[in-house]
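Probable cytosol aminopeptidase: structure, please.
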Amino acid sequence: MTSLTVTTKTSADLPVDALVVGSVRTPDGADLATGHGLPRKAVVHLQAVLADLEATGRADEVHRVVAVPGVKATSVVVTGLGDGDARRTAFDHTVLREAAAAALRAVRTKKSVAVALPTPDVESVSAVADGAWSGTYVYDKAAPLAGRRGRGAATKPAAGPKVTVVSGAGQPRAVKEAVARAATVGAARDWARDLVNTPPNLLFPQSFVEAVRKRVADSPAKVTVSVLDEKALLKGGFGGITGVGQGSVNPPRIVTMSYSPSGAKGSVALVGKGITFDSGGLNLKPSSGMVTMKSDMAGAAAVAAAVVAAAELGGPVAVTGYLCLAENMPGGTAQRPSDVVVMRDGTSVEILDTDAEGRMVLGDGICLASEKKPDWIVDIATLTGAQMIALGDDIAGVMGNDDDFRASVVAAADAAGEGAWPMPLPVALRAKLETPTADIAHKGDRAGGMLTAGLFLQEFVGEGIPWAHVDIAGPSFNEKGPKGRTPKGGTGFGVSTLVTLVEGHRPRR
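Here you go.
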């Protein structure tokens, strides 16, 4: 497993396998950024090599140079920071995260790596540490299959590098805590990525439950786990999630994860959509539309990881996560279009499209979360294709019933380096959910689909509770090649945002 430490030693004196430094983009090509700590002869050598390589210094550009004079490291990795000049001392934290991750991805098989990017303050050190950890991620594709092909015990997970961040802000307590926090959140995010990347025949509602129990058992933090199985869900009136899961041989579950510190200063709730595979149900998706549907549980993965990270960080706020787990399949007992189901709070809902199942499991989860009257609720979900049409693959849409709280969620995403954008919930669109056969229809027409999904979820939020909905359909899964701190496959998007939001919470008066 990757480890993170911090040092103020001169980077050139560190006997590591690879030393990471930054480059900036100038009119004359790439130039070394400040913070590298290299002697003159090393700088001259690297500049000559960069010129010969026609390096630009653009973001996501990485060059590795061996046998650099005056440097103990076996190689020097030069990672692009984008536009700037050699005298610039401060960079946007997102730029630092992306550059550190791109560099570490190039040397993640090494045993030891030092990162000497511009870090004039605690926040910069934190961003570099976070990005460096993220860049070391690799999914162990053999691990889920170990023991299933007659080869005995599970494989030992591959060890990550020992990463040392060279701090330009010294080593006060705040710097050390920032690096330790980056390791905690990074490990949780990696777990969320692993969950998303796990094949759907191996990750279904009950095996997801078992994965959560194992992760909690392995954690030093005190998190309690309780589970509602299919019988308890029926008895408890959870018609939304029960209806979604009734066509599968793998019945649904709602997992509650609770971190309750002594003398808690407030309580918050996180609700995650956990569709372990989405075929579309009877409204069957085209075959091409199912290729990435193992990732339809990314919201639940983000919630599970965020609860564990928040507990391990030991904050004063009580955090409860609700994982709404189901498999949406077209079996003989599957839910039909025109069915009417009754949700946990007694609301009747007409089903128009069985492929719009995520809002149904979330609705029940939000009802359950509201019963505890938390200070606020955030749900996170791979909910609508409309989110990707509106905001693309990298930006989450954030809706809510309280403008100030919605702004807090967006601010937390920005601080965490995860893209998010505020979206409205126009009252006029609520009419699209009217139906003569139930209290509400679960879907409107195509226009404004992301917003009507948010309006539907809003119906299940308890009175007076600030709530936000985060649609991560685009940024949760990367089908293309890795870039910056985003790996191919599951991204773990949302974990950092949720942890940051919890850390910044102030209880309602």
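Notes: The two ends are 42 Å apart (CA to CA).
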